[in-house]
Amino acid sequence: PTELDLGSSKSEEDQTLVMLFAAIALDAAKQGNNDKFKKVNNVVEANYTLGTGLPLREVKEGKDVGYRSKLLGSVHQVEFLITPKYQGIKVNIKFDEVKVYPEGFAAYINLVMDNDLNIINRELIDRRILIQDIGGLSTDIAVIKNRKVDDDKAQGFNLGVAEALESIREEIRKKHGVELDSRRDVVEIITKKNDRNHIMVRGSRTSVHDIVDRILGELAKKQYRHLRNVWQKNSQTEICYFVGGGSIVLKDYLKTLNQNFDGYNIDFFEDERESVWMMANAYYKLISDFNRRNSKEQQQSHQKKKEQRSGAVK
Predict the structure, then answer these.
(1) Model pTM greater than 0.85?
(2) Where are the domains of the chain?
(3) What's the pLDDT tens digit per position in 113-166?
(4) 39 phi-psi bin (left φ>0, alpha ψ -120 to 50, beta other)
(5) How far is CA 188 from the centre of its chain?
(6) Which of 243, 240, 193, 247 is CA-nearest to residue 216?
(7) 139-145/148-149 β-pairing
(8) CA torsion angle for 261, 274, 180, 19 (degrees, to 10)?
(9) Nearest to 154 by CA among 65, 265, 54
(10) What DSSP string describes 22-48?
(11) Interval 71-106: pLDDT, tens
């Protein structure tokens, strides 16, 4: 399964590492990377610099330290047993450097930096903003001020959309006798462009609107309460951006609540693909920026030593 269990922590869950190592091993083994890594007798020796992240709550609890040392401390071997094209290949993964970023900060970086690490949306840079990142298992609200996450004011909650999706799946099974394979199937039913909130029951098109509205409406109220509480403590906030897979599911409900109640300045990523891939893009930008600065510093230090040596020779 690729879905994390309810109540689990990303930093402590094997599933997080399994997916990470599988993705890296696939990258290392693919044809285009033959010249990058040493390969002897179907064993690939792959070195990577990794940018990844954890929910704000886990970073505040210091779990990023153990997570990073777990990744850095050893060689991780992945063997492809039955994967087409890669069967029989082993990949030894070693990390030269690992950076673990708070997820809320990563979302902010994605808003203000393009893929070439140039500043975009310049008007956002010095604004006070909130980023409410709704995931499957947790929600982070990052408070951004002076281009940094304010760790003291940022909040993390054990409240994601996974439990609500499970409840919808269970109620559909009880009421209509239809088994949906996973939470992903539920997401598809409630976000698809045509025939949203409808399923087929014995070949007949059937609405599940009542179930979905009740369960997601309740969850949206809880998420909105969290927004209200954090905003009240940060009254000079100018805008809140909703990001993450959960915000796609709750978007309409949150917009309606906001219109009916406080009327905060909130915004969503209309491009659903962008919202889902936002974190991966952000980590790539952050680690690229780190690499760029690092190599610059190394060049400067190398140049300095060179100058010192030539000065000593004179």
Answers:
(1) no
(2) 157-268
(3) 888 889 888 888 888 999 998 988 889 899 998 888 888 888 888 899 999 999
(4) beta
(5) 19
(6) 247
(7) antiparallel
(8) -120
(9) 54
(10) HHHHHHHHSGGGTTTSEEETTEEEEEE
(11) 998 999 999 999 999 999 999 999 999 999 988 788
What residue spans of the chain are helical by DSSP H?
Answer: 14-29, 56-60, 63-72, 103-112, 122-125, 162-176, 183-191, 209-233, 245-260, 272-313
Tokens of 153: 């004011």
Is residue 161 within 8 Å of residue 244, measured between CB atoms? no
Provide the token pair at 110.
């994605």
Amino acid type, 76:
H
Q: Which residues of 220-244 are buried (b: 16+ CB within 10 A; e: fewer)?
A: beebbebbeebbeebeebeebbbbb
φ, ψ for residue 147 (rounded to 5)?
Answer: 70, 15
CATH of 157-268, one of 2.40.40.20, 3.30.420.40, 3.40.1010.10, 3.90.550.10: 3.30.420.40
Residue type for 32, please?
Answer: G
Contact 251, 242 (CB under 8 A): yes
Through-space distance between the first and last CA atoms of the chain, rounded to whole angstroms: 67
